[in-house]
User: What shape does this take?
Amino acid sequence: MIKLNRKLNYLSGHYSSMVRNGITSLIDFFYPPFKKLMPLHTFRYAACGGANVSLDISLFIFSLYLIFHKQNFDIGFIVFKPHIAAFLFSFIFTFPIGFLLSKYIVWIDSSVKGRVQLFRYFVIVMMNLLFNYFLITFFVEYLHVYPTIAKLLTTVIVIIFSYLSQKHYTFKVKHPKVLNK
Assistant: This one.
């Protein structure tokens, strides 16, 4: 049994390392044209965040129109408006993906322990959830902005907050290294 656990741990570490190296290599391949504009670390954050935001917006639109059909979603004890149900649906997928990309691709030099990172990431994401909820509600219900546009505007605001909080709180580094090739 111990040999099996060791083998599984080895395979798990080996394949996760391959995936991490593959994603990092792909991102770094597109970096040279941006080298004069931003450091590699910032580019990696933008690439990972951009991919996760693209997934988030795609899932939001997909679920808004094809799952919830722009109708209220009743789960028995609470009724969600369609834009809030779509937002929550996309969150279920983008939370773990965002954490894994942040931890293993972007903030690899963090001096914070993994479980603390996850807790802090969760706290920041919960704050982002509140920002998303209130901003989307404000844009859609009070300013009468189309839900997709409201989601895009909200995303820009939340990204700025998220970057700053992840850099200085969740994945902080005691002695930062500059990642430039």
